[in-house]
């Protein structure tokens, strides 16, 4: 006879037929304050280990987990222990249990001071017995694994099974931190009096005048996916919005299979009118970045440490005010280190990396601005330098030696803009609406675009932008 048969089992599918007044406690709330309380919790079976008349479970909810014990006694039968031990990993269960203080800290769980003594357990959603990848393999620290015969999971396997990979504590931490970057970006700019705007992603002409665009059919004609909200941000400045920002998808048809390129990513874009000098824009953007770095440091320490356990890196360093170097100074530093390059040559990726290391050695910062880029390597709408037209009022910002923002003072004069577009062989007909928006008076303005995934990758010291893109798109990946 099984006296506990009503205390465990597989629940009928939740189809909203009734609403229980049962309160479910969050795993992260299971602390000593809840000692000796009878509670309900819903979580996943992370691991289970049967041992004689008892079974130890680790219950996981997002990045938190707690140990639970099902043991033969007044409340649990032998059959109930066996049932609990046989629940497939990753299944979702409802558990009624008493919270008990433990003698010795449970180092392997986030809730180290308590465990749950299970009185009832019901399966709410069953996982299939064979998982395409094991969560413990997914969180093994970098460099561990293969040698000691334990598996590590390669990136394609993770991305093919992204839903399971996203359940790991590391992934949970990365994307909670990413959510924080967006919120800090918004809050900081709102406090500075910016207006959030939404811009069209289906456009009639390649926004940058470049070739790296995706073409989509648009009724009887063709359209393009926007490479950036650039032209629309500027049109909003011409329309007297003064300071604007937007957060949205950006598309780049670049066949780049590198650690830092995606064909679709999230752009954090800023544009603002300034009074006398485009350095007002640089200061506004660098201050926003510093507020983001401080906010992450102060509010997301748990997430930073969680990611660091699997992917160790040096803490991110920044200065106040932000270091600003001129392009020629950067070139001089590189030449001193033995690099041969011309005054007006663009920085290659290896040279960006090297310059980042040189700047870190000299100034002890991972974040800096490189100002006054050569005009020849910048888009047509970039304002030339007033004293030397080989250079321009444009800048890039770098984190750990990789570019995260490209920006400039824009040309706000229709005549000069037309000349520069012709110089770049751009079809004027296709950007007519853009040029026309400057014919009726436009304030001097500038801005820049930041790649969200890149910022998260570099802040955390990760090595691949796919780790910070929830469902990444690159030239070889369109699913899931």
TrEMBL record:
* Residue stretches making up the Aminoacyl-transfer RNA synthetases class-II family profile domain: 175-480
Record-stated family = Belongs to the class-II aminoacyl-tRNA synthetase family. Type 2 subfamily.
Q: Which GO terms describe its cellular component?
A: aminoacyl-tRNA synthetase multienzyme complex; cytosol
Q: Supply the InterPro entries for this chain.
A: Aa-tRNA-synt_II, aa-tRNA-synth_II, aa-tRNA-synth_II/BPL/LPL, Asp-tRNA_synthase_2, Asp/Asn-tRNA-synth_IIb, NA-bd_OB-fold, NA-bd_OB_tRNA
Q: Which UniProt keywords apply?
A: Acetylation, Aminoacyl-tRNA synthetase, ATP-binding, Cytoplasm, Ligase, Nucleotide-binding, Phosphoprotein, Protein biosynthesis
Q: What's this chain's function?
A: Catalyzes the specific attachment of an amino acid to its cognate tRNA in a 2 step reaction: the amino acid (AA) is first activated by ATP to form AA-AMP and then transferred to the acceptor end of the tRNA.
The compartments listed are: Cytoplasm
Q: Does the keyword Acetylation apply?
A: yes
Root EC class: ligase
The UniProt record lists the keyword Iron: no
Name of protein: Aspartate--tRNA ligase, cytoplasmic
Entry GO MF terms: aspartate-tRNA ligase activity; ATP binding; RNA binding
């Amino acid at each position: 006879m099984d006296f506990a048969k009503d205390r465990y089992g597989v629940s009928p599918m939740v189809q909203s037929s009734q609403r229980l007044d049962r309160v479910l406690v969050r795993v992260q709330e299971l602390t000593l304050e809840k000692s000796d309380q009878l509670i309900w919790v819903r979580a996943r079976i992370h691991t289970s280990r049967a041992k004689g008349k008892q079974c130890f479970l680790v219950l996981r909810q997002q990045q938190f987990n707690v140990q639970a014990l099902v043991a033969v006694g007044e409340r649990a039968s032998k059959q109930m222990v066996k049932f609990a031990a046989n629940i497939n990993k990753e299944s979702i269960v409802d558990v009624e249990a008493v919270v008990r203080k433990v003698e010795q800290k449970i180092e392997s769980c986030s809730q180290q001071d308590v465990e749950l003594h299970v009185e009832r357990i019901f399966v709410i959603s069953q996982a299939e017995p064979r998982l395409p990848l094991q969560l413990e393999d997914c969180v093994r620290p970098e460099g561990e694994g293969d040698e000691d015969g334990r598996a590590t999971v390669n990136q394609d396997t993770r991305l093919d099974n992204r839903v399971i990979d996203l359940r790991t504590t590391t992934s949970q931490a990365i994307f909670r931190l990413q959510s924080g970057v967006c919120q800090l970006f918004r809050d900081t700019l709102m406090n500075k009096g910016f207006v959030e705007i939404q811009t069209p992603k289906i456009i009639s002409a390649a926004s940058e005048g470049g070739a790296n665009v995706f073409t989509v059919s648009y009724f009887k004609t063709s359209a393009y996916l926007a490479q950036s909200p650039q032209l629309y941000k500027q049109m909003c400045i011409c329309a007297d919005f003064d300071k604007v920002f937007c957060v949205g998808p950006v598309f780049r048809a670049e066949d780049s299979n590198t650690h830092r390129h995606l064909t679709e990513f999230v752009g954090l874009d800023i544009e603002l009118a300034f009074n006398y000098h485009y350095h007002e824009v640089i200061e506004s953007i660098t201050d926003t970045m510093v507020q983001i770095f401080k906010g992450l440091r102060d509010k997301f320490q748990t997430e930073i440490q969680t990611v660091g356990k699997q992917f160790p890196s040096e803490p991110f360093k920044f200065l106040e005010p932000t270091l600003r170097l001129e392009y020629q100074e950067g070139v001089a530093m590189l030449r001193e280190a033995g690099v041969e390059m011309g005054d007006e040559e663009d920085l290659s990726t290896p040279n960006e990396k090297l310059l980042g290391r040189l700047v870190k050695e000299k100034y002890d910062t991972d974040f800096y601005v490189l100002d006054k880029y050569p005009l020849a390597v910048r888009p047509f709408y970039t304002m030339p330098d007033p004293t030397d037209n080989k250079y321009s009022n444009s800048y890039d910002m770098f984190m750990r030696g990789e570019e995260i923002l490209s920006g400039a003072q824009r040309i706000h004069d229709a005549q000069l803009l037309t000349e520069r577009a012709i110089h770049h062989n751009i079809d004027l007909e296709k950007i007519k609406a853009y040029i026309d928006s400057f014919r009726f008076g436009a304030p001097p303005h500038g801005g820049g675009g930041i790649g969200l995934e890149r910022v998260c990758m570099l802040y955390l010291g990760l090595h691949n932008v796919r780790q910070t893109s929830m469902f990444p798109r690159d030239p070889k990946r369109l699913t899931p």
